[in-house]
Fold these 2 entries.
Entry 1:
Amino acid sequence: MVSRFGLRPVIVTGIVISGSGMILASFAKTVWQLYLTHGFMYGFGAGMALFTSVAISVQWFDKKRGLASGITVAGSGIGGAVLAPLNRILISKIGYQWALRIMGISTITIVCAVLVCIRTRIPPRKRGGPLFDVAMFKNSGFTLMYLMGMLVTFGYLTPIFLLPKFMVDLGMSPEVGASLVSVFSGVNAVSRILLGFVADWYGPLNMLILSTAFSGLACYIFWMTTTGLPMAVVFVVIYGINAGGFNSLFPVVAADVIGVEKLAAAVGLLYSGNFFGNLLGTPLASAIVTASGGRYTWTIVFAGTAPILGAALLLFIRFKHEKRIFVKM
């Protein structure tokens, strides 16, 4: 859509749909209405706005591409750090209906206000070419990145969604879990910038492999051994530092694999692979907890294994082009 119609029309349309989804969700009386509004409308609209914009900075930079991408996507981490406690305050003061309405109106207003600052270097395609360029899958590197993104998202959000309930099961209040989510978002935002900066020195593909693998190992080493708040904080910090690489470096590596000229369409297709993990990952993890009688061991294995397998797929790309280990790539 960005290639055909331009960046701003797609972002405006998406943000109006997502904001309207939140506002309409405040009037929902049944579960299916929540699926339609807060689920489909918000998700579809936010995807149009967010995933089309993450590749903008990559188009404008070469030497500092990793840092530029990290700064760009750090915004969502900062938003998560602020919105988690803010939403809890709004819900406690004015109820969840008005909290949803305020968030929906704020989303539309803020994004439309900064839209004037957003511009793409590559102009939209005026005619010709497929809407979905599936020919990109002929590129083995692109296909492996698609599969990597699908695998990683099965585990990526699992700790964040389950951590509040996990802390309650350890005997702590829901506020502790919400605070840990805020800590994760804040650490994640900083790590996106730092990992982008380091990637410019040591290579974005190298850093994406390492950060993705370490995020999975953090689940095994730290989440698996968490029995109280101190270790939970350690896990959230370590996981947040490494998980930030997936957001900041994924579009940078895509630019290297597929080329900047096809980046808008490439990123759209790549992020479509996240659909499966984002939709099914957390429900599967929750089902594993239920099937295990409330124990989290196998859920943690599930969350940790997904990114490790994703990192293994990236190794195929890495060693196909360069077999030497200590080479920037």
Entry 2:
Amino acid sequence: MELYQAKVQKLAASATLGLITTVFLGKTSDLVKLNMEARKEYGIDIKLVVDDDLNTATFMVNDSGILMEDGIVIDKASEFRNLSEKDQLNMEDRIRVMAGSSPSDKLLLLQRLKKKGQVVAVVGASSRDSPVLEEADLGYSVGELAKEASDVIIMGQKSITNIFPILGFGRCVCNNIQKFVQLQLTLNISAFTINYILLLSIMPEPIGLLELLWVNLLMDIFGVLALAQPPPITEIAMDPPKFGEKGFQYLTKTVWRNIVAQACYQVTVVLILYFKGKWILGTNQKVLEAMIFNCYVSCQVTVLINARGIQYGRMENNMFWVLVAAIVILQVAFMEIMAVLSPVGRLDLKQWALCVGIAVFSFPLGWVAK
């Protein structure tokens, strides 16, 4: 966020940034002409809500380039205030400018927008805006004037124009949260299903507590860092958040398809190896147990890569691949240490290659699920 001269005061605001659909602008005396093409690309509605008269507000509109297509200009905020709630809800989406607005008028328009499911960010420049900033889903303050009521403080000469890339940063955060939820649910659903099936069969579980702790440790630390690597301004940043009947959902149908497909594959692989591995591979029980666990961890790595996607440039991917390599190296070290300290067998190169091959097969499965 330092790149955009912004300070996030509340951690949850990092995710809320990615859900914004509407931005309230107030005084725009410090603005350069907004790049309206960028506003179109981000898919965010801009409303100019000021306490100035209509002439001054019109000048601001022309200066900032706010689009007026199919829009409504409110000469005096009292016109909107005096309407019935039903009429207010019917027109609030199309309001582009509302002149002569008091803080209570801004608050009223904000409440109507939120009631219709909009996620609203308000840019405040004075302490008078504190009630609106507190009510907004996300409160921006320009400089230090209303920082106590704000979630994000933006500073610098181009502070207003930094709003869009900051919102894009938030969309990347939301996308990374979604990917991490997918990774963790795949891991835990598959482990639970495997152990539950074998518990019902009165068979010892193939993935013990130590192994589960280890794979969760790998993914919670290195997996999180790897998923956090995409640069802020990408195609994801330009993609508006998609809201369903229940608002924004991290667990979309696509995410569930990925989870179910990968979890089913992992469960199938582990159970086949568990019950038929000796006969298929011609190996002993100790080596088989090591292969089962190694296949399971290798599958999590492919799920991580599938979740991350390869849609970014090579340079942006460098740190991601470094972290993936770190996971692989640590897994190799763990398997070698386990072979010395516990009755788990040591894998040869052929068996390692087989584990990797089984895991790699989940790549096309992930592409189909997407």
